[in-house]
Design goal:
The chain is α/β, with parallel strands linked by helices and 402 residues long. The chain is built from twelve helices and 15 strands. The strands form two sheets. Strands 1, 2, 3, 4, 5, 6, 7, 8, 9 and 10 form a ten-stranded mixed β-sheet that branches. The chain has a five-stranded antiparallel β-sheet with strand order 12-11-13-14-15. Helix 1 packs across helix 9 and helix 8 packs parallel to helix 9. It is globular, with a radius of gyration of 21 Å.
């Protein structure tokens, strides 16, 4: 697929020739008017977006993605080899729906090649195009959104697409969604019936206050996602004054960078969208630097991935917690489950702990015993099961398995 036809090249001043090899610009393959970068050989591909027809506030002055690039490519690159391509700025379609479809085609092509897409700029409803790309996988997927609000307004004539896009994704038919997580919302900005609807659908939510209390609670939710969309409105205004309307409460810049790191470390995550930045609200470039740092942590997280998928292998410890008794340690066996392990069912919860990263997973078997799924969880979930309590995440996954 010739992706070059969808993109405008970058101004050459964003990626100056002869940049030191120690900075990201020196390790970058970018579309600056010459040859289109070989995105098939890249680990990550950055796509700039300047599509604002889905926003009620209209188009900002200035190109947000370019402002962030100006900061990002001056940062020192990490110790790992970096294969990053910048495809340039996506040309908007004739209509907003055309732009969604362009994103769908481009991200689907990247998915097919195993290249992780980084989407930067534009209004938050562009994650609908990001979402549509996963329909081509022909399997159930999970995703997470980081936003101060839950964008599930009724799609009437008065609601802008950036306020309705989440409803559109959750109600998409045919459904290919397994799970959804809403992170960092502020309860006083969300109607109670919206949160009740998410609970009824057995989706997980994590308020900004809960993240403030213990940000580690967010890690399993991001680790389960195939893709993440992050609205900069989730970050408090004084840390990132680059969106509207202004909000004095929200994530700190450190918390936002930590969430980006968690997303990058996720072995199964294949696209990350950072939306909503308006450079005309950011005269000192503070919000641009916050986003550049978030993307730096995402890239670093990607190269920290450990490909932890072999739960029966020697890199995992296995624990079994009976719903009516104490937890016990049971070693994993590379050759497959033992007879005792074969007895695992809905009356027992099996946990896996990575020896490499100390991350936890939980195996959920549905009540009829004909479906099971291993989902990310926290150490607190294990402690709760060890004390005889059923973790809330286990109950929600049971409902999703049916």
């Amino acid at each position: 697929m010739n992706l070059a036809i969808f993109f405008d090249p970058l101004p050459e001043e964003l990626v100056p020739a002869g940049a030191p090899a120690t900075v990201l610009a020196g390790a970058l393959s970018a579309f600056t008017g010459g040859t289109f970068p070989d995105w098939r050989a890249a680990d990550l591909a950055l796509i700039g977006l300047d599509e604002w027809r889905g926003s009620a506030a209209g188009e900002p002055a200035g190109h947000g993605a370019n402002a962030v690039r100006r900061q990002l490519y001056q940062l020192q690159k990490g110790s790992s080899p970096c294969r990053l391509a910048d495809l340039g700025n996506l040309r908007p379609g004739l209509t907003l729906e055309d732009s969604y479809q362009r994103l769908r085609e481009i991200i689907a092509a990247l998915l097919e090649q195993g290249t992780v897409a980084i989407l930067l700029g534009g209004s938050h409803d562009l994650d609908y195009g990001q979402f549509l790309a996963y329909e081509t996988l022909e399997r159930a997927v999970s995703f997470a959104t980081v936003d101060a609000r839950v964008d599930m307004a009724e799609p009437d004539t008065s609601a802008a697409p950036e306020d309705t896009h989440l409803r559109r994704m959750l109600l998409h038919a045919p459904s290919f969604l397994f799970n959804f997580a809403q992170l960092a919302h502020q309860q006083y900005l969300v109607a109670p019936d919206v949160l009740a609807a998410l609970e009824k659908l057995h989706f997980e939510t994590l308020r900004v206050g809960q993240i403030r209390d213990d940000i580690r609670q967010a890690e399993p939710l991001l680790r389960q996602a195939d893709f993440v969309s992050f609205d900069m409105a989730a970050v408090r205004w004084q840390d990132a004054p680059g969106y509207q309307p202004a909000n004095p409460f929200g994530l700190t810049n450190e918390e936002a960078a930590k969430l980006a790191w968690y997303a990058g470390c996720n072995d199964q995550l294949t696209s990350f969208g950072l939306y909503g930045y308006r450079p005309d609200n950011d005269p000192h470039g503070l919000a641009a630097m916050v986003q550049a740092t978030m993307l730096w942590y995402f890239v670093e997280g990607y190269y920290y991935r450990r490909r932890e998928t072999d739960f029966r292998g020697p890199t995992f410890l296995r624990y079994a917690a009976g719903l009516h008794g104490p937890a016990r340690y049971a070693p994993s066996h590379p050759g497959g489950p033992t007879d005792e392990e074969e007895e695992d069912g809905p009356d027992r919860i099996v946990f896996y702990k990575s020896r490499q990263t100390d991350r936890w997973w939980m195996e959920v078997v549905n009540l009829t015993g004909n479906a099971r799924r291993i989902v990310p969880c926290s150490y607190q979930d294990y402690l709760r099961a060890a004390q005889g309590d059923v973790p809330h995440r286990w109950i929600l996954t049971q409902a999703l398995l049916g």
